[in-house]
Amino acid sequence: MHRIEEAAVPTRVIGLISGTSVDGIDAALVEISGTELDLKVELLAGATYPYPAELREKILAVGAGVAISMAELAEIDDAIAIVFAQAAQNIQIGHQPATLIGSHGQTVYHRPPADREIEKKTTPDSPLGYSLQLGRGALIAHLTGITTVSNFRVADIAIGGHGAPLVPRVDAYLLSHPQEGRCIQNIGGIGNVAYIPPRHGDWLSKIRAWDTGPGNSLLDLAVEHLSAGTKTYDEDGNWAASGTPCHPLVEQWLNQEYFHLPPPKSTGRELFGVTYLHQCLKDAQAYQLNAADILATLTELTAASIVHSYRTFLPQMPQQVLLCGGGSRNLYLKKRLQLLLTSIPVWTTDEVGLSADFKEAIAFAVLAYWRHLGIPGNLPTATGAPQAVLLGEIHQSQS
Ligand SMILES: Nc1ncnc2c1ncn2[C@@H]1O[C@H](COP(=O)(O)OP(=O)(O)OP(=O)(O)O)[C@@H](O)[C@H]1O
Ligand SMILES: CC(=O)N[C@H]1[C@@H]2OC[C@@H](O2)[C@@H](O)[C@@H]1O[C@H](C)C(=O)O
Questions:
Q1: Stated pTM of the model
Q2: Which atom of ligand 1 is least distant from the CA of 216?
Q3: How far from 306 is each of 185, 253, 336, 366, 383, CA to CA, in Å?
Q4: Domain count, the chain
Q5: Residue-wise over 153-183: b if at least 16 C-beta within 10 A, else e?
């Protein structure tokens, strides 16, 4: 049952997420009103709080498969919840307090459902996907005194979905256009797209969304390796821009199975992580590429895999592409995307009024708000789930 009547009252909600780049906690304090087509979100404050270096190292190690004990797992889970709770406290400074938190947490493992050969290789026994986000909501609620919704992916996974991407339903209501088809392209550690057709007829069922593959994950790892640990990312894409992409290598990399899988599909650093980068660096040796050429070629892989997936899987090309996530600040990547998309304009979501930096944090505030109102959060065409369901577990606070 939808408790639509409550939606007339604007609600102050905090959205929290740390994505696959593991760079820090994005926090958004928003005022939300409406429900779906009349949904309105005002960003009151947005900030990124970097992880303490030691915690970041631990998270990256766990995500890369380093073995830990159950006690250590509990310790990391709570260490993450503590910094998320601090982020929630900090973002409210100077504002009226929030009444609800939506916390995505930190993904440390993601395994899609085993319904295709590529996925069966990693999943011998279970037909369901598995996605683990740390930073337990119970502790965030306890520390902040604010009811917290967390564990957003499990309900979609329980009915056979990928549990990702989840932001497309929010994109649909905040970024659809009455006449124009749009691709909303997030470029985080991993890239994901939501194609939103013009908002008429059965537009909602025509939305398509999937993870496009690497966003910045391989680039960041390569920069760290090539700079001997002195840099963590290629600021504005300047280093890559000083090199030349090796197109035969990009073509070779695009043959990889993931890029040819039809959606729905999701991925993570389990595939596009350290091992993948090492293979790329090995392949690059055959072409005697220097550091700048390697970065230009990896940047081209991100751009080409995005555009290749649009041309292969979309019913039609969009009229606009709206970028968000940290990769939207990589000017060289943006330029390469524009070149590959020829006459289709490539903008950022900022240009249509939604913060490109904080869109994911805003989305988890909306998903918590929908959970509170009893409104489903997933889009079956995006996650592959058979139906739309309520997302997230509610942890009531004591105060
Ligand atoms: N000025 C910039 N120039 C180039 N790249 C940038 C810039 N600012 C941020 N980035 C890139 O964006 C990344 C962070 O992006 P973002 O915070 O959107 O990722 P995420 O949310 O962790 O990932 P995901 O969306 O996959 O969960 C950084 O690691 C860096 O590679
Ligand atoms: C399992 C997981 O954390 N997936 C992330 C990741 O980062 C980008 C892409 O892969 C997307 O599928 C998802 O995040 C966003 C927030 C989503 O669910 O829409």
A1: 0.95
A2: 31
A3: 9, 13, 11, 26, 18
A4: 2
A5: bbbbbebbbbbbbbbbbbbbbbbbbeeebbb
Does residue 351 sit within a domain? no
Element housing 148 (H / E): strand 148-150
Q: 367-387 pLDDT, tens per residue? A: 999 999 999 999 999 999 999
Give the N- to C-terminal CA distance of the chain in Å, as an integer: 27
Task: Grade residue 337 by pLDDT with cuts at 50, 70 and 90.
Answer: very high
Residues with CB under 6 A from ligand 2: 19-20, 107, 110, 131, 164-167, 186, 188, 190, 192, 211, 266, 268, 360
The residues with which 287 forms a beta bridge, in sequence order, are: none
Q: Are 261 and 332 found together in one domain?
A: yes
From the CB of residue 74, how many other CB atoms can be counted at a distance below 10 Å?
13
The CA 187 to ligand 1 mean position distance, Å, reads 7
Whether residues 189 and 297 fall in one domain: yes
Give the CATH number of the domain where residue 259 resides. 3.30.420.40
Residue located via tokens 């996650």: 383
Question: Do 79 and 186 reside in the same domain of the chain?
Answer: no
23 is in an annotated binding site: yes
10 Å CB burial of residue 291 (0-12, 13-18, 19+) is: middle
Distance CA 251, CA 258 (A): 14
Q: What proportion of the chain, given as a percentage, has pLDDT over 70?
A: 95
Q: Whose CA is closest to atom 14 on ligand 1?
A: 326
Residue 53 token pair: 């270096």
What are the pLDDT digits (tens) for 342-360? 999 999 999 999 999 999 9
- Domain with 256, as residue range(s), is 168-344
Does any domain span residue 350? Answer: no
pLDDT digits (tens, 9 = 90+) for 51-61: 999 999 999 99
Report the atom number in ligand 2 closest to the C-alpha of 364. 16
**Does residue 8 have a pLDDT over 50?**
no
Q: How far apart are CA 180 and CA 366, in angstroms?
A: 24
Per-residue tokens: 287 = 């072409």
Q: Which of 138, 156, 338, 147 is nearest to 237 (CA)?
A: 338
